[in-house]
Amino acid sequence: MTFDRAAAHALMTDWTASESLRHHMLAVEAAVAAYAEREGADADLWAATALLHDLDYERHPHLGEDGHPYVAVEYLRAHGAPEVMLDAILGHADFTGVPRTTRLAKVLYACDEVTGLITAAALVRPDKDVRRLELKSLKKKFKDKAFARGVDREGVVRAAEELGVDLWDHVAVVLAAMQARADVLALDGRRAQA
Known about the structure:
The protein is mainly α and 194 residues long.
């Protein structure tokens, strides 16, 4: 099995019925791909890793060795996925204890949680359009602990530190990546019209 972006996308859609989870993985892909482009990394590998990082979450939502992300990693390993991909997928979940030693692992970890904050901030806008969302609005939402309670703010800060970038520079990169793919993420105002 090949693990390019197209194959990863097909596998992700095969394993994941939930549109919101698919959109999450596509948002993380947009952000990780933006970093790959900025850093001259293997864009196909990085995009595929981002698309597959929550591959088993819908089928095996419980955390642990018989659940997420271990089931996906076992499946991907059996089908010849590269170890750098598998290490990044394991490393995106703190509870696995797998250290994030590669740039891909650090980028995936840093992009994962913050996409949830950006998505939530876009969806509370009357127009539901991420393209009109501004960084200053995200800063306010980030400080408001009642907003998007499921977002691990300490994890977002820690991830930016691990990545070696300023938190708000990082959020700006992720926001721009999501804005560029607003239509694919269904964050281009179509939900407001429904």
